[in-house]
Amino acid sequence: MTVDDPWTGVGALVDPSRRTLYDYVRRAGHPVSREEASDATGMSRGLAAFHLDKLVNAGLLQARYQPPPGQLRGRGRSPKVYEPAGEGVTLTIPERRYQLIAEILAAAVDDDPTHADQAAGRHAHDRGRTLGAALAAEGADLTAALGHLGFEPHPAADRTLLRNCPFHGLAARHTALVCGLNHAFLTGLLHGLGATDRHAVLAPHPGRCCVELALTPNDHPGA
After folding, report:
1. Tens of pLDDT, residues 18-38
2. Which pLDDT band holds residue 150 (cuts at 50, 70, 90)?
3. How is residue 216 annotated by DSSP?
4. Which H or E run includes 143?
5. How far apart are CA 111 and CA 26, in angstroms?
6. C-alpha span between 61 and 117 (Å, rounded)
7. How many CB atoms lie within 10 A of CB 172?
8. Which residues 6+ apart lie within 8 Å of 3 measured at CB?
9. Which residue, of 123, 130, 164, 185, is most buried by count of CB atoms within 10 Å of its CB?
């Protein structure tokens, strides 16, 4: 569904309950029923349904009827489920951090204009390490730090997937450069946080960040 006026979507997210529901559905990775949304957010089923339908009307979610997993369609209507709308919504959701990349590139050009690409990698690592140390001093763990920066971490088996790239628009146009800087930045972030059980690896995949955080060999089960 496409929203002709993106401010309609922005207005729908002013309500904190609605924003909480939207964030939950977008990060769930599967169609979400009213009951699941209610349980996950602590809202009543009726209130959750009201806000979910408002998000559909705003073009941020789409809805359909689907039988529960493992159950065949029976008599009566299947439960209504919700999932994120397509890419027709032009909002800065999920979070983007283009200024961060701009600052890294500007510092690199100032530092070493002849070899700005190499300097950018160093600055990205240093910026990540500085931010990681600052967040650690505030008591943030790895998951909290990644969430704060907009990466939307999701644990999966032996690694942490990052469902959002805060540099998505630039990465789509300048993939090698931006993904390389992202890798250096996240490596520095891990160092700053003292998260020695993880290391950043380039793992491009449609729909999520080009970097994953894998267990270091010594921390891998069976290593």
Report:
1. 888 988 998 888 999 999 999
2. confident
3. P
4. helix 142-148
5. 40
6. 40
7. 10
8. 9, 58, 59, 60, 85, 88, 89, 90
9. 185
